[in-house]
Design brief:
Layout: H1 3-53, H2 59-102, H3 110-151
Helix pairs in contact: 1-2, 1-3, 2-3
Length: 153
């Protein structure tokens, strides 16, 4: 094997490892966003609980809001878990590609399977976050309706 062949082989391996690295960056961005969402949901839940403690006149509305925000928190938590699993899969893909190159390409479909698993986790988390956004908008609409009904009295 000539030095040129060796160099081009290293570049091919590094190039193959770039795709998982880009997916790791995308997953990291989604994780930051999901964690911020979770923090906002928790803050809103705390505020609703404080209002609930002070015997607010519209208890049934507060109970519905608390239930909806608990569901939102559970969804965001599930999405975060999936994103962490996806991140781990992409790291595993990158490592499997490197190990596969050093082992003489004996791992077969392991790197590809890890990448597909990671993309599946990313897709699942995205769908869950989409559902959570819908709940968020529905909750906000209900809060606006409640506020507007209070002003017209």
């Amino acid at each position: 094997m000539t030095p040129t062949d060796l160099t081009s082989g290293h570049y091919a391996i590094l190039t193959a490892m770039l795709a998982p690295a880009l997916l790791m960056a995308a997953t990291g961005s989604l994780l930051v966003s999901a964690n911020a969402r979770l923090a906002r949901v928790v803050d809103r839940l705390r505020a609703l609980i404080e209002e609930w403690k002070h015997d607010a006149p519209d208890m049934s509305w507060r109970d519905r809001q608390i239930a909806r925000h608990r569901r939102r928190a559970a969804l965001v938590l599930r999405a975060c878990q999936m994103l962490y699993a996806g991140l781990g899969s992409f790291v595993g893909t990158s490592l499997a590609l490197a190990v596969d190159a050093f082992a003489g390409f004996r791992l077969g479909l392991v790197p590809t399977a890890l990448a597909i698993l990671g993309v599946g986790f990313l897709l699942g988390a995205s769908v869950i976050l989409g559902v959570e956004v819908s709940l968020s908008v529905r909750s906000f609409d209900e809060e606006l309706d409640q506020e507007m009904a209070g002003r017209t009295r």
